[in-house]
Amino acid sequence: MVINIITLGCSKNLVDSEYLLRQLHTNGHKVLHDETKVDADVVILNTCGFILDAKEESINSILHYTALKKQGRVGKVIVMGCLSERYSVELKKEMPEVDGFFGVWDQKEIISSIGASYFPEMGNDRIITTLPHTAFLKISEGCNRRCAFCAIPGIRGNQRSKQIHSLLDETKTLAGRGSKEIILIAQDLTNYGIDIRGRRELAELLKRISAVELVEWIRMHYAFPTGFQEEVIDLMANDPKICNYLDIPIQHVNDRILSLMNRGHNRKQLEKLLNNLRKKVPGVALRTTLLVGFPGETDEEFEELYQFVEATRFDRLGVFPYSREDDTPSAKLTDDVPQAVKEERAGRIMELQQKISLEINQEKIGKTFKVLVDSEESEYFIGRTEHDSPEVDNEVFIEKISSVKPGDFAMVKITDAAEFDLTGTVVS
Questions:
Q1: pLDDT at residue 56 above 90?
Q2: What pLDDT digit, counting tens, does each position of 156-174 carry?
Q3: Considering the chain, what is the average pLDDT of its residues?
Q4: pLDDT in tens, 363-416
Q5: What is the residue-wise DSSP string for 78-115?
């Protein structure tokens, strides 16, 4: 059969799709990923159910492929992932034309539903859909935190960390196939291992992965501020393989809002962590995420957040207007900030961040950075520094030379800068 898996949502969903692709390929089927113009015997939609926009995208995708099914261009339509886990009863009632709804833990059942076999020995193997020299490594699933606005624990459950030896085997396989950059992902990197041995083991995992010879860059995404290990900061400072980059969502800084959000820390503790990171790891790139318009957020509390962003000067920043999520603690609160105000607040912060990003980038002109070349266009290569994660951060546009190809590292001198892009030339 021709089986097309469509992945919506985050990189953690992408990894789930990659495991499924390998299983189905091992069954002898022709597997595709995110192909939009190809007819298929089976389309599997790996959905997101986290925020309103993501849910709408997932619903629209289901409607699109069930319409293609009616036209005879698709055989079966199967829905999996977070949206299906969260709303399976409602979806089955509203969309009877879908051939099956499966949750986030149901890969064996999905495989069985299309008459294929599950191979347990392939459990840690996958078909990489990212750039061949970059791969995500999902180190745990679920989350023990109970942030008031977040539906993830209700969808994915409590934290379930993978054993270090299993992650090390997976890393070696990825590296052996050409992955030079390993990006650690989880709902919460900070708490990795706490469910296995009662202590946080991110630092130990980083040491073990760094020892894999073919790995050159290790990057961390989604580290919760509360409980972040001092040892991890020391490793970032001293291990050249660990990128001086950290994705650390803070959401807010006002103490009252942080308490309502149930974030487990206050502004003073957050500032101490960020200051420690920048002191011990000079030049570290910090990416964060903010949530504005949380129930009860006043103009003054938003202004506190705005001024914090202005003073802290994050290298990368995303901001989301609050949206009410079913079955979360904050859903019981009155959503009293008008949508227009939420969007205006988000827009103000992004306008500020654009200015900050331009200033930070302009400071890089004349400096030389190690760059991983991702792709080749007609007139230039496109790459990234250690301060940039694929698809979400800056790109470096590099003058083409014959001695460089995608997947190579090169030393690049920055010659120009825009808000979210750099331009440079290879110097060695």
A1: no
A2: 899 999 999 999 999 999 9
A3: 94
A4: 999 999 999 999 999 889 999 999 999 988 999 999 988 889 999 999 999 999
A5: EEEEHHHHHHHHHHHHH-TTSSEE--TT-HHHHHHHTT
Between CA 85 and CA 108 the distance in angstroms is 15
pLDDT over 90 (residue 37): no
What's the rounded mean pLDDT across residues 174-189? Answer: 96
Provide the pLDDT for residue 54: 77
pTM: 0.94
Which residues is 319 bridged to in the sheet?
290
- Residue 38, C-beta contacts closer than 8 angstroms, at least 6 positions apart: 2, 4, 32
Which residues are 291's β-sheet partners? 320
Q: CA-CA distances (angstroms) from residue 175 to 214, 244, 370, 391, 411?
A: 6, 20, 19, 21, 22
Give dist(CA 96, CA 84) in Å, integer.
Answer: 13
Give the tens place of pLDDT for each residue, 226-244: 999 999 999 999 999 999 9
What's the CA gap between 253 and 52, in Å, rounded?
24
Q: Under a CB-based contact definition with an 8 Å cutoff, are residues 203 and 157 in contact?
A: no
Structure tokens at 183: 């990006």
Query: What b-and-e string marks burial along 20-38, b requiring 16 or more CB atoms within 10 Å of the CB?
Result: bbbbbbbbebebbbeeeee
How far apart, in Å, are the Cα atoms of 41 and each of 19, 30, 62, 68? 19, 10, 16, 11
Question: What count of residues does the chain have?
Answer: 428
The token pair at 242 is 């660990």
> For residue 169, what are its two tokens?
């085997």
- Strand ranges (DSSP E) for 233-386? 242-247, 285-292, 316-321, 368-376, 380-385
Contacting residues for 141 by C-beta, under 8 A, at least 6 apart = 12, 156, 157, 159, 160, 186, 187
How do 380-385 and 395-399 pair as beta strands? Answer: antiparallel
Residues 6+ positions from 394 with CB-CB distance below 8 Å: 361, 384, 385, 387, 388, 420, 421, 422
Cα 50 from chain centroid?
Answer: 13
Taking Cα atoms as reference points, which of 373, 404, 393, 415 lies closest to residue 180? 373
